[in-house]
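It would be a great kindness if you could assist me with a short task in structural biology. The matter concerns a single protein, recorded as an amino acid sequence and a row of C-alpha coordinates. The record follows directly beneath this note:
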Amino acid sequence: MSSGLGSKEVKLPMLSNAFQPIEICNSFGTDCNSDEDQALHDVVSSCARCLTSGGVIAVPTDTIYGVAGLAQNSEAINLLYEIKQRNYKNPIAISVARIDDIYRWSKVTVPRQVLEDLLPGPVTVVLERSPELNPALNPHTQLVGIRIPGHKFMQDLAKECGSPVALTSANISGATSCLRVEVCH
Protein backbone atom coordinates (compact mmCIF):
# COMPACT_ATOMS: atom_id res chain seq x y z
CA MET A 1 0.00 0.00 0.00
CA SER A 2 1.65 3.23 -1.08
CA SER A 3 0.04 6.62 -0.95
CA GLY A 4 2.88 8.44 -2.65
CA LEU A 5 2.73 11.07 0.08
CA GLY A 6 5.87 10.38 2.05
CA SER A 7 4.98 6.92 3.26
CA LYS A 8 7.74 4.68 4.55
CA GLU A 9 7.74 0.94 5.08
CA VAL A 10 8.62 0.06 8.63
CA LYS A 11 9.70 -3.41 9.66
CA LEU A 12 9.00 -4.33 13.24
CA PRO A 13 10.45 -7.54 14.66
CA MET A 14 9.00 -10.67 13.09
CA LEU A 15 7.30 -12.17 16.11
CA SER A 16 4.67 -14.14 14.27
CA ASN A 17 3.99 -15.34 10.76
CA ALA A 18 0.75 -13.35 10.94
CA PHE A 19 2.63 -10.07 11.33
CA GLN A 20 4.27 -8.80 8.18
CA PRO A 21 6.08 -5.56 7.30
CA ILE A 22 3.57 -2.77 7.17
CA GLU A 23 3.54 0.76 5.95
CA ILE A 24 3.09 3.83 8.09
CA CYS A 25 1.69 6.94 6.47
CA ASN A 26 3.12 9.86 8.36
CA SER A 27 2.42 12.83 6.14
CA PHE A 28 -1.25 13.39 6.93
CA GLY A 29 -2.08 16.37 9.06
CA THR A 30 -5.08 18.60 9.22
CA ASP A 31 -4.17 20.85 6.28
CA CYS A 32 -4.97 18.67 3.26
CA ASN A 33 -5.79 19.66 -0.29
CA SER A 34 -8.31 17.62 -2.28
CA ASP A 35 -5.67 15.21 -3.63
CA GLU A 36 -4.33 14.64 -0.13
CA ASP A 37 -7.89 14.26 1.20
CA GLN A 38 -8.54 11.54 -1.38
CA ALA A 39 -5.22 9.85 -0.60
CA LEU A 40 -6.03 9.95 3.12
CA HIS A 41 -9.48 8.50 2.46
CA ASP A 42 -7.94 5.70 0.37
CA VAL A 43 -5.37 4.86 3.05
CA VAL A 44 -7.97 4.98 5.83
CA SER A 45 -10.27 2.68 3.83
CA SER A 46 -7.46 0.22 3.17
CA CYS A 47 -6.39 0.21 6.82
CA ALA A 48 -9.99 -0.19 8.00
CA ARG A 49 -10.39 -3.22 5.70
CA CYS A 50 -7.25 -4.72 7.23
CA LEU A 51 -8.50 -4.11 10.77
CA THR A 52 -12.01 -5.42 10.12
CA SER A 53 -10.40 -8.57 8.68
CA GLY A 54 -8.63 -9.16 12.00
CA GLY A 55 -5.32 -7.56 11.03
CA VAL A 56 -2.95 -5.40 13.01
CA ILE A 57 -1.35 -2.25 11.57
CA ALA A 58 1.19 0.38 12.55
CA VAL A 59 -0.26 3.88 12.76
CA PRO A 60 0.75 7.47 13.46
CA THR A 61 -0.91 9.26 16.36
CA ASP A 62 -0.60 12.73 17.82
CA THR A 63 2.10 11.56 20.24
CA ILE A 64 3.99 8.43 19.13
CA TYR A 65 3.69 5.69 16.54
CA GLY A 66 1.34 2.93 17.51
CA VAL A 67 0.22 -0.58 16.69
CA ALA A 68 -3.51 -1.06 16.33
CA GLY A 69 -6.16 -3.76 15.98
CA LEU A 70 -9.91 -3.79 16.50
CA ALA A 71 -10.76 -3.90 20.19
CA GLN A 72 -13.79 -6.08 19.51
CA ASN A 73 -11.67 -8.76 17.78
CA SER A 74 -10.08 -11.14 20.30
CA GLU A 75 -7.58 -12.54 17.78
CA ALA A 76 -6.35 -9.03 16.98
CA ILE A 77 -5.97 -8.30 20.70
CA ASN A 78 -3.91 -11.48 21.15
CA LEU A 79 -1.76 -10.51 18.16
CA LEU A 80 -1.10 -7.06 19.67
CA TYR A 81 0.13 -8.72 22.87
CA GLU A 82 2.30 -11.13 20.87
CA ILE A 83 3.83 -8.38 18.73
CA LYS A 84 4.58 -6.24 21.77
CA GLN A 85 5.76 -9.20 23.87
CA ARG A 86 3.47 -7.65 26.46
CA ASN A 87 2.18 -9.20 29.67
CA TYR A 88 -1.58 -9.77 29.40
CA LYS A 89 -2.04 -8.08 32.78
CA ASN A 90 -0.88 -4.77 31.23
CA PRO A 91 -3.92 -3.10 29.67
CA ILE A 92 -4.23 -1.70 26.16
CA ALA A 93 -6.09 1.56 25.52
CA ILE A 94 -8.72 2.11 22.86
CA SER A 95 -9.05 4.92 20.35
CA VAL A 96 -12.45 6.22 19.27
CA ALA A 97 -13.59 8.84 16.79
CA ARG A 98 -15.92 11.01 18.88
CA ILE A 99 -16.83 11.85 22.44
CA ASP A 100 -20.20 10.16 21.95
CA ASP A 101 -18.27 6.90 21.37
CA ILE A 102 -16.79 7.18 24.87
CA TYR A 103 -20.31 6.89 26.28
CA ARG A 104 -20.85 3.66 24.34
CA TRP A 105 -17.66 1.90 25.43
CA SER A 106 -17.41 3.10 29.05
CA LYS A 107 -19.38 4.31 32.04
CA VAL A 108 -18.68 8.04 31.98
CA THR A 109 -18.46 9.58 35.45
CA VAL A 110 -17.24 13.06 34.55
CA PRO A 111 -19.13 15.94 32.99
CA ARG A 112 -19.17 15.91 29.19
CA GLN A 113 -17.49 19.32 29.20
CA VAL A 114 -14.40 17.78 30.82
CA LEU A 115 -14.12 15.31 27.94
CA GLU A 116 -14.68 18.10 25.41
CA ASP A 117 -11.96 20.19 27.05
CA LEU A 118 -9.42 17.34 26.97
CA LEU A 119 -10.20 15.59 23.70
CA PRO A 120 -9.10 15.20 21.03
CA GLY A 121 -5.52 15.41 22.20
CA PRO A 122 -2.62 13.61 23.87
CA VAL A 123 -4.74 12.45 26.81
CA THR A 124 -6.00 9.03 27.86
CA VAL A 125 -9.11 9.07 30.04
CA VAL A 126 -9.51 6.04 32.28
CA LEU A 127 -13.07 4.97 32.98
CA GLU A 128 -14.99 1.85 33.90
CA ARG A 129 -15.56 -0.26 30.79
CA SER A 130 -19.04 -0.90 29.45
CA PRO A 131 -20.30 -4.50 29.19
CA GLU A 132 -20.40 -4.01 25.41
CA LEU A 133 -16.58 -3.84 25.22
CA ASN A 134 -14.85 -7.10 24.28
CA PRO A 135 -14.13 -9.01 27.54
CA ALA A 136 -10.86 -10.29 26.01
CA LEU A 137 -9.57 -6.71 26.02
CA ASN A 138 -7.91 -6.10 29.39
CA PRO A 139 -9.58 -9.02 31.18
CA HIS A 140 -7.71 -8.28 34.42
CA THR A 141 -9.38 -4.91 34.98
CA GLN A 142 -12.79 -3.30 34.75
CA LEU A 143 -11.13 -0.07 33.59
CA VAL A 144 -10.32 1.04 30.07
CA GLY A 145 -8.12 3.85 28.82
CA ILE A 146 -9.80 5.77 26.00
CA ARG A 147 -8.19 8.20 23.56
CA ILE A 148 -9.32 10.44 20.77
CA PRO A 149 -5.93 11.29 19.28
CA GLY A 150 -5.56 14.76 17.83
CA HIS A 151 -4.59 13.18 14.52
CA LYS A 152 -6.99 13.16 11.56
CA PHE A 153 -5.86 9.73 10.37
CA MET A 154 -6.67 8.05 13.69
CA GLN A 155 -10.01 9.82 14.03
CA ASP A 156 -10.98 8.86 10.48
CA LEU A 157 -9.81 5.27 11.01
CA ALA A 158 -11.90 4.80 14.16
CA LYS A 159 -14.89 6.35 12.41
CA GLU A 160 -14.47 4.15 9.31
CA CYS A 161 -14.17 1.00 11.45
CA GLY A 162 -17.26 1.89 13.47
CA SER A 163 -15.67 0.16 16.41
CA PRO A 164 -13.00 1.06 18.97
CA VAL A 165 -9.42 0.57 17.84
CA ALA A 166 -7.10 -1.04 20.40
CA LEU A 167 -4.01 1.14 20.33
CA THR A 168 -0.62 0.71 21.93
CA SER A 169 2.86 2.04 21.26
CA ALA A 170 4.88 0.60 18.36
CA ASN A 171 7.67 -0.91 20.40
CA ILE A 172 8.44 -4.03 22.36
CA SER A 173 7.02 -3.62 25.88
CA GLY A 174 9.53 -1.81 28.05
CA ALA A 175 11.52 -0.44 25.09
CA THR A 176 11.66 3.20 24.06
CA SER A 177 8.60 4.45 22.18
CA CYS A 178 8.90 5.40 18.51
CA LEU A 179 8.69 9.16 18.10
CA ARG A 180 9.97 9.16 14.50
CA VAL A 181 9.09 6.67 11.79
CA GLU A 182 12.79 6.10 11.05
CA VAL A 183 13.36 4.44 14.43
CA CYS A 184 10.37 2.06 14.33
CA HIS A 185 12.35 -0.98 13.15
Q: What stands out?
A: The mean pLDDT is 81. The CA atoms of residues 71 and 137 lie 7 Å apart. The helical segments are 34-52, 74-84, 99-105, 112-118, 152-161. The first helix runs from residue 34 to 52.
